[in-house]
Amino acid sequence: MLVGKHSHEAAATCKATTDRIKSGILLVKGKVGGDGDNNNKIHWKDTGGVPCTLGGQQSSLKRLIVGGGSGVKMNDGTLVFPVEGTKREGAGKDEKTVSLILYLKDTKNWTLSKGMSADGCSVPSVVEWKGKLMMMTACDGGRRRVYESGDKGNSWTEALGTLSRVWGSKQQGNVKAVGSGFSTATIDGVEDNRNVMLVTLPVYPKEKEKCELHLWLTDNTHIVDIGPVSGDDDAAASALLYKSAEGESGDGNKEEKLIALYEKKKGDGEKPSPGMLSVRLTEQLQRVKVVLTTWKKVDDLVSKLCTSSSTAKDASPENACATDKITDGLVGFLSGNFSDTTWKDEYLGVNATVKKEDGAEKTDNGVTFKGRGAGAQWPVGEQGENQLYHFANYNFTLVATVSIHKVPEGDTPIPLMGAKINDGNNNPVLLGLSYNKKKKWILLCDGGNTRDLSSTWEPQTQYQVAIVLQNGKQGSVYVDGKPLEGMPFDLKNKGSKVISHFYIGGDGDSAEGQEGLSVTVRNVLLYNRPLSSEEIAALAKNTITIPKREGPKTLVVDARSPTVSAQDVERTVTQSNSPGQLPLEEEPLTANIGAGGDVSSAASVTTTPSSDDGPTVVTVGGDKMRGNGSPQTPEVGVSSGEDGETLEVTDAQGEEGIHPPAGEVNATALNGSLGNVSQGNNSDAGTVRGSGLLPSLLLLLLLGLWGFAAL
User: Fold this and answer.
1) Dihedral of the CA atoms 185, 187, 191, 197 (nearest 10)?
2) Measured between alpha carbons, how far is residue 448 from residues 414, 432, 510 in Å?
3) What is the pLDDT of residues 223-237, one digit of tens each?
4) What digits encode the pLDDT tens for the residues 451-463?
5) CA dihedral defined by 416, 400, 443, 487, rounded to 10 degrees?
6) What is the pLDDT averaged over residues 544-550?
């Protein structure tokens, strides 16, 4: 570890190239153990001074001190320590603190990084993440900035698209910054041991004056508040230690330990603080594993978006539909997890709030909004102290599947979805899409300016809408994978204004002509990056083509088997036949498989041959779907685990937002353009409904019925 010493080497004996900075830093090495086999104490005996000539590497610095945060040993053996520097820009100007790193290579050569943070950033902590160094600092203005470097600090880039400026403080005035715990961990037993970052930071609950130390989990995309770790203590600076090693039993099982070390604040009139306190975070570590399992399940569901009807060539790594690309930067996902006024994020991050409880109704994988004032708000700046979606001020893509059920009557365009900026008491639209009684799309931008578009919409028709912000100043809107006219365009009035929230299904305001309106929004995806036009097109086109219906034709098969045992299951399968075959009417296949093991209900199969005609419109569950539409899909429960215990984790809103049994995750199946499951070739694709996994016997039955119905 690095420590500071009180007496610095005299300027006369130090051969530094500048008199403005003399290193007063020692490198201290500790050795674990000593007398006795059970002695695990650390003996700090080996000390060595950092060269006093170090200041010559940064002539702009006046002073250099140890930063107080944890260092890291990189994969190449380099020891990296965070340090603080003080510089003066000129006579009469205030001194500014900056954060940078000091690293030791080959145990001999010390190097002070050329790059540094912005002025006013202190108490840095450093970790190595995927070949880069990441440095977290507490900066003037109350927000923590995170920087990344791929060249050992020669240059730093602020991570505005991921972690930077996410965490803040509600405290005002000249408040002393405190260091954060910042560590990486490879969590055993999750996704072949998943790499994550763990952070401990103070949080100031609204109902309390004392600060609580919270543990946060992130994979540099998703962020979840695991919960408090400091109890009733008013915590300040903190550090984290994660250890995974073979247990003492020798059975090959690893023993994991997550330990938080924090400083207890000294309150007015209280006795001096006892110093540092440590707590083992056993329960929090189990909650981390629950969250990671949930992320994996949701990623798997979203990945089916581009693999359901794509060929092997289409799914190649270079293709926009490759699995790793379609979830790359996917931060939030709103689907069928809705109750009361809360539309919960499937990734357990930030929840959306429905503004009018009696104007919202849960539907398959989404919400139907009705009447005046209906709609949902997904907060960005409105989150307050900690803003998990701060990236949206620079880059984002918001994608949703929408259906407008009725043509509005008034002259005022009706908001559908978009982003609003925080402008005092007013929240004008930065970028959004509306619709009017002429069945035309209306673009909103730059604080409420409107632009009529020639593109039209039809009621009871399902569309995929994507709204994109790039570099904080360029906007685009897509419908069914195609950019609307005039895209992209420059946003001239945003400036430094920040996004308040996303609005979905309506902006929550009462407006003329909204009586009797009804809009359904399903499967809302939020990315922390601007998706390319190819990726957006891939999302939109990856659906089953449903041809025109011609005349009823039903096939009913009584399927019974005493050997099948599962929960009640309902399945619907849609088939597209090769060109030239006669069109058949959809024939629903339903099978109720009881817990007793018998298939007790009649089953009918749905087959719909394709045709060479152009895009068609078909009504499914009240919604029309164009030629690239697909049926609605209800929820699917994905379950693993045995003990049935419940773990509770606080979500980003402070609610008990994670309640799956150990090892169990309930996720929502994708519908519409997000819900197709591949059947192994290009001509047969289906949508699966129900809860539980499809038994192999029923799968064989479905395959046999498909072949029979195609004859």
Assistant:
1) -30
2) 13, 9, 16
3) 999 999 987 777 888
4) 778 889 999 999 9
5) 180
6) 34
User: Integer distance in angstroms from the first to the last C-alpha of the chain?
Assistant: 76
Which residues, 6 or more positions from 347, have their beta carbon under 8 angstroms from its beta carbon?
Answer: 222, 224, 294, 295, 298, 330, 331, 332, 333
Residue 394 has pLDDT above 50, yes or no: yes
Six-digit token string for 185? 């961990």
Rg value, the chain, Cα: 29
Hey, what's the torsion of the CAs at 663, 664, 670, 675, to 10 degrees? 70
Residue 218 CB contacts under 8 Å (≥ 6 apart), including other chains? 163, 196, 197, 199, 224
Q: Rounded CA gap, 235 and 29, in Å?
A: 28
Instruction: Write the CB contacts of 206 (distance below 8 Å, at least 6 apart in sequence).
Output: none
pLDDT at 220 over 90: yes
Decide: 488 and 466 in contact? Cβ < 8 Å: no
The residue type found at 371 is G
What is the rounded CA–CA span in Å between residue 355 and residue 516?
17
Structural tokens at position 458: 């039809």
Give the model's pLDDT for residue 4: 79
Q: Which domains does the chain have, with CATH numbers?
A: 58-220+230-280 (2.120.10.10), 318-541 (2.60.120.200)
**Residue 322, CA distances (Å) to 291, 318, 326 in order:** 24, 7, 6
Q: Within 10 A of 194 (CB to CB), how many other CB atoms are there?
A: 18
Confidence (pLDDT) at 282: 95
Q: Which amino acid is at 190?
A: V
Name the percent of the chain lying above pLDDT 90.
41
Name residue 185's amino acid.
A
Residue 283, helix vs strand vs coil: helix
Backbone angles phi, psi at 224, to 5 degrees: -135, 135
Segment 591-635, tens digit of pLDDT: 333 333 333 333 333 333 344 444 434 344 445 444 444 434 333
